[in-house]
Amino acid sequence: MELLDQLKEKIKERLPELDVVIGWEQGFDPLHATPLFMRTEEDVDRLVFSPLCVHNLASHLTGLKGKKVGIVVKGCDSRSVVELLQEKLLVREDVTVFGLPCTGVVSLKKIKHALGGLDKVASAEFNGNELKVSAAGAARVLPLNEIAADKCGRCQYHNALLSDVFVGAPVEAAAEDNYADVEAFQAKSPQEQAAYWRDAMQRCLRCYACRNACPMCVCRDHCVAQSREPHWMTQQDTVQEKWFFQMIHALHLAGRCTECGECERACPVGIPLLLLKRKINKEIKELFDYQAGTKIDATPPLLSFKVEEENINERGW
Amino acid sequence: MPKKSKNQEARNPYLPAIGTIIETIQETPTIKTFRVVLDDKDEMERFTFQPGQVGQLSAFGVGEATFVINSSPTRMDYLQFSVMRAGEVTAKLHALSTGDQVGVRAPLGNWFPYEELKGKDIVFIGGGIGMAPLRTLLLYMLDNRKDYGKITLLYGARTPQDMAFQYELPEWLEREDLDATLTIDVEAEGWEHSVGLIPNVLLEMAPSAENCAAITCGPPIMIKFTLQALQKLGFQDDQIITTLEKRMKCGVGICGRCNIGTKYVCVDGPVFTYAQLKTLPNEL
Amino acid sequence: MAAKYLKKENLVSWLQTLAKERLTLVPRREGDAVVFRPFAPGQDIPLDQQATTPPKAAVFPQCEPLLAFKYAKDPENPGKVGVQVKEKLGDTPSVVVGCRPCDARGFLTFDRVYDSDRASDLNYLTRRRNTLFATLACDEPASTCFCNWVGSGPADAEGSDILMVPVEGGFVLEPVTEAGEKLMEQAPLEDAGDKAALAEAVKENAAKALGEAPDLSQAREKLLSLFDNMDFWEGVSAKCISCGACTYLCPTCYCFNITDEQSGAEGVRLRTWDNCMSYLFTMEASGHNPRPTKAHRLKNRVGHKFSYYPDIHDGHIACCGCGRCIKSCPSSVDIRQIVLQAIAASAASE
User: Fold this and answer.
1) Given an 8 Å threshold on Cβ–Cβ distance, is A269 in contact with C30?
2) What stretches in chain C show pLDDT beneath 70?
3) Contact at 8 Å (CB) between A162 and A82?
4) Which of B64, B85, B88, B247 to mutate to probe the A interface, most A CBs <10 Å?
5) Phi and psi torsions of C35, nearest 5°
6) Nearest by Cα to A226 from C140, B204, C274, B239
7) How far apart (Å, rounded) are the C-alpha atoms in residues B243 and B108?
8) Mean pLDDT, chain B, as a whole number?
9) pLDDT per position as a tens digit, B189-218
10) How many CA atoms lie within 13 A of C186 on its CB side?
11) Which residues of C touch B253 (CB under 8 A)?
12) pLDDT at A288
């Protein structure tokens, strides 16, 4: 049986005991999947799974508190569920995880670059390691490795790390992540780095898609970026304010960010926000040898306290 | 592209007039009243408003908030606003005292249909800070007493200390042409008036609904049960008038946050009959 | 003035001329986005597709000071501190070149609200009167385009001052307003000749490619009749993440916030974009929120555009059909589907 059919069957089995199961369905055009909230068997029939299923559905979990929720997760998505459980932001019994093996999802931005735009896509079809797409009257074949999301190229967790139901055969491969992207960026001069972010932040709309798409950013409705009590930030559209918010966002995610990249994917004006979080995660990895959302019984480093940290030389001056 | 604005001599709707606080009254632990005179003498002389209209008070640096002008247009020595401390702006306003300046954008919104109410009996039912919008109309009617029939006032607060406008309550109680009743939720030492929740006291008072209008304002839970009591007493939906509150910013129907369906509370309200409210979508 | 022809290679010289007298805003590629920025010689001007953001900020900036205030001691009574307040209006003459008909038309939704019998928003109107639009007609619709659903089309000139129709080798420029005609006089133009017929063909083909529009005349009543049906709204809003991307990319979304900022004795009262997707938008000081969930909030967004606004404003829908809210939504929420579902749902319940 195909993986999708197995998944549908498993979801239908568990559906009676659940309020809703979150998966994906086909969206408004052949290249866009969209989150699907399944309550009936007919809903389950609309489920899809392909490299177009880019959304980390765990972002919806904290908004469904008190409900019995099923969720379909890829390897990377499962890390967010694990992290939420670690932080006790979810009740384990309330969540049923349908885990999948994943060989990578696409970056719609890369496809957009390859096609020159996403406005006129007529069809899209995966064939082995290729995407066959026709747009604006022309057909193109794009190798998956050229259009895969950056996170997939360095993926160490292809299979859901946590699942109540695992469907399909686990993927054996695992890449290494040496934070080459962060290293490359840091090789630029401080002036170049500052100029880069100044330019990028210029076009930030303060729409907070980055925040609301983040599975770990749970203050959403009470965010300091908009609050007047406390009144930490102004509503000005200066680079300074926008940067201030991104720093708050990134620092609050230190040791918590599972690098799903939803912040960056959600940004309507394409600001490369994951790079900020990866910089901080790189430090966390070096200091605490910790990766968020990979071990369910681990305590995130910034939620714990040790008098003597192994890798922080506090008294050695 | 519009070449001319619809309001030819358009005044900047966001530009407040500057006024000076000439007197403050600490009404209750959480309510403070401000009497404000506009600094520009001509502007103050020209200033007119209708009972029930609101104004935006500015504490520059913190922001603006909406309050009913609770003085009467028949007494234009000053504009009176009573401010209950709830958020950032009201906290700042509470810190102001006589001589301090505030911004005033007023009048805004609609008003009580005092013309249509002429010749009718009137029952005012106010709870807590909800007495403020009733006060302006009450004073207006008392100053035009012959235009109206029997006027009844029921004003309730949780405790005697929560009762605002104490300086004028004795006069209201004494007046022959006003039937005033005060009530508090539970018995308190030294309290000589009624005890009981507003809707219950109202049922005991049992004002006749005939040729009468009920004007009520107060916290949502009180309004809910007061409406039920009024219905029991035979009041029809169009005989009941209330005022609404919403978060407002611009005050002139533009910024988009105070709508209930097609109606903007800042310009189509705050005064609505219960009959009108029933036609609005359910989003109070 | 009749339609004229502007060769593609003459576009930049025209822009250079315009930029001498007006702030000239054109599409520019920044990272993965195309946004409107002041024209700068030597920079690429991507006109082949709709910009990521509309030129909304040209007339309605993301943030603008409404007032400046200053506390100062009264010279005659140093114990007393007074406050001075000054209004701030922006009146830089501007022109937007290369926006789409939906973009220019978005301001018509603003106009009815920002200049009504009740109030005239001088900050908005001052900019509005000083901003012209040389709009590029669309030759081929995107999958997210639905301007024909809301009473418009790919060559709609309403709200524009010049309509530029793309043809082989350049543009056929049609003057729409007198002000637009004056701008055209500054361009190195040629007689349109047989290009005029080509332009008509481009318009016709684009309109045809959009296909038939569904009948939305029922939407006003149907959306209102669904107001209390929270199952419906929870269903259609389930995947919404309640961010404001849709509203800030929308050419017709006009809501704003007003906040004060003070530093020392001086400060400003700011007007900034705000949106009904935000929890804090309607949050009252008492702690009560009339729109506490994303279902309530999405209901307001859709209801306002397709029901309440048309009800107040002679049937005009507060949506220009640009489709940005669909294509840039992190969850691909599709407002077209919600409106169609609303029409179908209430038909079923009747």
Assistant:
1) yes
2) 346-350
3) yes
4) B88
5) -130, 165
6) C274
7) 13
8) 95
9) 999 999 999 999 999 999 999 999 999 999
10) 18
11) 113, 116, 118-119
12) 93
The whole-number pLDDT of residue B6 equals 61
Domain extent for B232: 121-243
Strands (E) across chain A are located at 20-26, 33-38, 69-73, 95-99, 121-127, 130-135, 138-143, 165-166
Split at pLDDT 50, 70, 90, the class of B7 is low
Q: Is C224 an interface residue toward B (CB < 8 Å)?
A: yes
Q: Name the closest residue on chain C to residue B20, using Cα atoms.
A: C82
- Compute the count of residue pairs across chains A and B with CB atoms less than 8 Å apart: 6
Q: Which of residues 3-42 of C touch B (CB under 8 A)?
A: none
Cβ A229–B87 below 8 Å, yes or no?
Answer: yes
C70, closest residue in chain B (CA to CA): B60
* Chain A nearest-CA residue for B87: A229
Chain B residues with CB under 8 Å of A231 CB are 88
| C contacts of B103 (beta carbons < 8 Å) | 83, 85
Give the pLDDT band of residue B245 (cuts 50, 70, 90): confident
Tell whether domain A108-147 is in CATH 3.40.50. Answer: no
For the stretch C126-142, pLDDT in tens is 999 999 999 999 999 99
Which structure tokens are listed for B263?
């109606």
Task: Determine the number of helices (DSSP H) and then strands (DSSP E) in chain A.
Answer: 12, 8
Q: Kindly report, residue by residue over B45-95, the tens digit of the pLDDT.
A: 999 999 999 999 999 999 999 999 999 999 999 999 999 999 999 999 999
The answer to whether the Cβ–Cβ distance between B65 and C285 falls below 8 Å is yes
Q: Are residues B132 and B100 in the same domain?
A: no
Residue B37 falls within a domain, yes or no?
yes
Which residues of A fall within a CB distance of 8 Å from C239?
A: 34-37, 60
Those of residues 207-236 in A touching chain B at CB distance below 8 A are 228-229, 231
Q: Chain C window 124-153: which residues touch B at a Cβ cutoff of 8 Å?
A: 125, 128-129, 131-132
CA-nearest residue to C256 within chain A is A235
A231 with B88: Cβ contact below 8 A? yes
Residues of chain A with pLDDT under 50: none
| Pairing of β B63-68 and β B54-59 | antiparallel
The per-residue DSSP string of A121-133 comes to: EEEEEEETTEEEE
* pLDDT one-digit tens code per residue, A78-92: 999 999 999 999 999
- What residues does each domain of chain C span? 4-349
Complex-level ipTM: 0.95
Return the domain boundaries, chain A. Answer: 1-105+154-176, 108-147, 178-310
Retrieve residue A169's tokens. 């055969």
Q: Do the strands B79-84 and B179-184 form a parallel or antiparallel pair, or are they unpaired? A: unpaired
The pLDDT assigned to B17 comes to: 97
Any C CB within 8 A of B9 CB = no
B179: CATH: 3.40.50.80
Tell me if residue B60 falls in helix, strand or coil.
coil
The reply to whether B150 and B42 lie within a common domain is no
A109-166 pLDDT, tens digit per residue, is 999 999 999 999 999 999 989 999 999 888 999 999 999 999 999 999 999 999 999 9
